[in-house]
């Protein structure tokens, strides 16, 4: 695997990221997680919770695609 600082994620890496994040939020996320990453452009704050942020409509969030096995069984 390449170094984590060598640019944007490939399509395959992004799909792996989504799969791992989906697994995390399904099995490990309790009420919320607050993360901060330091980047060359400044801090990035990540808020994961089981409810939308106050004042933000639920339909404002980008819906992520279901896992591939779920898509195959939906039809």
Give short descriptive properties of this protein:
75 residues; two-stranded antiparallel sheet; alpha+beta; 2 helices
Q: Would you write up a description of this structure?
A:
With 75 residues, the protein is of the alpha+beta class. 32% of the residues lie in helices and 21% in strands. A two-stranded antiparallel sheet has the order 1-2. The longest helix is centred in the N-terminal third of the chain and has 17 residues, at 11-27. The model has no long low-confidence stretch (mean pLDDT 88).
Write the layout of secondary structure elements.
Elements: H1 11-27, E1 32-39, E2 42-49, H2 68-74
Antiparallel strand pairs: 1-2
Helical fraction equals: 25-40%
**What is the N-to-C succession of helices and strands?**
HEEH
Based on CA atoms alone, the radius of gyration comes out at 15 Å
Strand content: 15-25%
Order of strands across the main sheet = 1-2
Low-pLDDT segments? none
Number of strand segments? 2
Enumerate how many helices there are, as a single number.
Answer: 2
State the shape. globular
Tell me about the biggest sheet? 2 strands, antiparallel
Mean pLDDT: 88
- N-C termini distance: 35 Å
Secondary-structure-derived class: alpha+beta
Précis, in short:
The protein is an alpha+beta fold and 75 residues long.
């Amino acid at each position: 695997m390449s170094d984590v600082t060598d640019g944007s994620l490939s399509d395959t890496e992004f799909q792996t990221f989504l799969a791992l994040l989906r697994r995390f939020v399904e099995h490990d996320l309790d009420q919320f997680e607050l993360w901060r990453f330091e980047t060359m452009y400044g801090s990035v704050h990540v808020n994961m919770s089981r409810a939308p942020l106050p004042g933000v409509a639920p339909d404002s969030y980008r819906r992520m695609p279901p896992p591939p096995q779920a898509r195959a069984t939906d039809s």
